[in-house]
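## Example record

The block below lists the input lines for one assembly entry, exactly as stored, with component labels intact.
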Amino acid sequence: MTKLSPSEIEQKLSEIDGWEYQENAIHTTFEFNDFKDAFSVMTRIAFEAEIQQHHPEWSNVYNKLQISLSTHDSGGVTEKDFTLAKTIEEIVAAES
Amino acid sequence: MTKLSPSEIEQKLSEIDGWEYQENAIHTTFEFNDFKDAFSVMTRIAFEAEIQQHHPEWSNVYNKLQISLSTHDSGGVTEKDFTLAKTIEEIVAAES
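Predicted structure tokens for the full assembly:
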């Protein structure tokens, strides 16, 4: 899996809302109504991440969720990260 | 819920393995076989946290899980944090 260039990443980021590129990874944050809503979304993301065999670095406190995606083996951001980012956006949109 | 003193916290920390007190919270880390094992444990913890109405600050990447507990309303560590910490230890022990 080839690491994308900063300009390729910027191009792809323009296609999804609310993500930014920083320190070799793409990042977003979400805020839900409460912990149950946040963890429900995390659970749906967990299943898809496992299917894609690509996993987020994420943290949660109560209703807040922070997600960072990068491809460790490639040392940066790859297509795999954008595939998972789009899946995450679809899950969050479906839950809202 | 009363904030515990540092000496009360140290006393209680001596009763559970692998936790430390730092920056007004108690912290631990776990390492599992893989993402599925880590997220399975997170799911069991999530249910218990919701029952206790007390939620962790936690982060996960693949098989690693970091957990910090504090009681926001009390500005520090309280009995609630130790109750949840013991529950977490029981869940992890049961899964291992």
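The first helix of chain A runs from residue 6 to 13. The mean pLDDT of chain A is 97.
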